[in-house]
Write a structure and sequence with these properties.
Length: 327
């Protein structure tokens, strides 16, 4: 019946992960490259930066997309780049615009994200992923470079930042931030996925060990400053936050990253609450979508589609000690 059909589709997706070509012979997850990577800017061949020209498509579950949405908020780019939101649980046809009236994105008129990838490049065989940036004047996917997207918002879109916007990517710190972000990506942001998608015990344990060794180091770093780079929020904080906010509700169980929870690290936990309570962070975080996306989507082997009741998420609104500690 319905149940077994669902299980079969899910099993196939888990078995192949639809990332079959992203698994090494040692059983480790090796993420696909981004297909649409043209840079934003004013040089020939770059994507011209204009108000209202681009639409950012995201799913609230997704950390890679969430960071672009947080930066869009922090910089006040809401009227410059429009936002389309898919439902948090990916369907077998890909990300679906079922939250919108009639089940289609109101600007692009598409029901599923892969439609716009197919329109842009009929030869494209990779996964249609969020975040995706579409040029609404040409209806083409122009960028899905989740790694650099926030940096474009921070630099190329600078003329459109709101007055008094934070400088999330200060010129004098860029080299350090880039170096830090790279390490953060491998051990933490993508580290949880490497643990969760591993298809061998050794690959899983390697990812787990690297992840917690790095978190121990970051716990120490955050005992010395309020944010990762001193007393100002930077791009790196956004990148760390999106993993932290998903950790206890999803990764801890679904990806087996269970040495300890984020609330067990005194400095990281207070830092995470500090960010959550900062406009742009908590107000773009949807725990229900995160739980559903990871637990009911293809990430988890969950044939009966049971959603875990916990953990208690009200703790994110509790007081933090960061302002007091670093005044
Ligand atoms: N574009 C990157 C990262 C973005 C990414 O993985 N996004 C996920 C959601 S968090 C997604 O859209 N996955 C779609 C799929 O696996 O079909 C990739 O291809 O690995």
């Amino acid at each position: 019946m319905h149940m077994s059909e669902k299980t079969t589709a899910l099993d196939t997706r888990i078995a192949n992960h639809e990332i079959a070509n992203e698994i090494t012979k040692e059983g480790a997850f090796n993420r696909q490259n981004n297909r649409f990577t043209t840079t934003f800017g004013s040089q020939p061949g770059e994507l011209p930066v204009e108000v209202g020209r681009y639409r950012l498509l995201w799913a609230r579950i997704c950390p890679w997309a969430h960071r672009a949405v947080i930066v869009r908020e922090l910089l006040g780019l809401q009227d410059v780049i429009s936002l389309g939101t898919t439902s948090p649980v990916r369907t077998k046809n890909g990300w679906e615009f079922s939250l919108d009236e009639g089940g289609v994105d109101p600007v692009l008129g598409i029901r599923y994200l892969p439609e716009i990838y197919a329109e842009t490049d009929p030869e494209y065989t990779g996964r249609a992923t969020v975040p995706t940036v579409v040029d609404v004047t040409t209806r083409k996917v122009v960028n899905n470079d989740y790694f650099r997207l926030t940096n474009y918002f921070e630099t190329a879109f600078k003329p459109f930042h709101k007055e008094g916007a934070l400088d999330l990517y200060p010129a004098e710190l860029r080299a350090e931030i880039d170096e830090f972000n790279d390490i953060l990506f491998h051990d933490v942001n993508n580290g949880v996925y490497k643990a969760g998608f591993a298809q061998s015990q050794a690959a899983y344990e390697q990812a787990y060990d690297a992840l917690f060794a790095r978190l121990d180091q970051l716990e120490d770093r955050l005992s010395r400053s309020r944010y990762l780079f001193g007393d100002r929020i930077t791009d790196s904080d956004v990148r760390f936050y999106v993993t932290l906010v998903r950790f206890d509700a999803a990764y801890y169980s679904v990806f087996r990253t269970n040495r300890n929870r984020i609330i067990d690290f005194p400095n990281i936990w207070n830092y995470a609450k500090d960010l959550y309570q900062t406009p742009g962070f908590g107000d773009t975080t949807d725990f229900d979508a995160i739980k559903r996306g990871y637990q009911l989507g293809n990430h988890a082997d969950n044939p009966y589609q049971i959603l875990a009741k916990g953990p208690d998420l009200s703790v994110w609104n509790k007081a933090h000690d960061r302002a007091e500690k670093f005044k």
